[in-house]
Task: structure prediction
Amino acid sequence: MIKKIFTDMDGTLLTSNGSVSVSTQQFMHNLEIPVTLVSARAPMEMLPTIESLGLTSPQIAFNGCLIFRPTNTGISSLFEATLDTEEVKRLSVLLTHYFPQVSASLYDHQTWYTVKNCEEVEFQKRITGVLPVITELDKICNRPGNPFFKLMLITFDEKTMVNLTYFLTELGLKHLAIHRAGRYHLEVTSGVATKSTAITHLLEKENLSSEEVAAFGDGYNDIPMLELVGLPIVMENAPTDVKRLTKLITTSNDDDGVKEGIERFILS
Result:
């Protein structure tokens, strides 16, 4: 019996325009099984979806680096794995020198910081509906207070993306993890946590076995999560390599795939 459901957001729960259909919202409000969103997004980018679905259980942000519970006033942090400040400072200097054309942003648990408004930032604003604070990254890196969870890099040029990924990988940053998220995003988070380690943390806290949980995903970064759970369900819009993980293929993210998958593979 499935007692908990984990789902990715972009390309999975969310449609191509970044929303959740009315039918899925209504379905989730009536679903008795707790649902946890597992996303690379920041909490403030997740909260509108959490509220629209009426979710109250712990949620996973920043690719597993933050577990939080939504509250009436925002969020309550349950687990944190933050970026190493000195490595972020080093990256900021290197990126400014070698990749000035790439849009760079930093996130703490409640704010998105970026250097300037540009085409890439406008693109991200349209996706998430969140507005950034414009500042110099070296200044924000030296501030006291909340640590950072994610460095996000955006470029629309594929050659630049390939070179950037190679450059960061070759730096050998031991405490950081590098994820490509879709065509235009490269995300740097703590190497301590992943989507699957965050799920394992919650399963231990809630005394659940992996066989008692299901997960929905569509991307390569969802593979460890899908391999962990007893019931992995993959979206129709996923790459072929991801679909090979399971025989359970639901409809696409634009066709209420999560709702359809729950009805077909969990509730029936």
The longest strand covers residues 74-80. The radius of gyration is 18 Å. The mean pLDDT is 94.
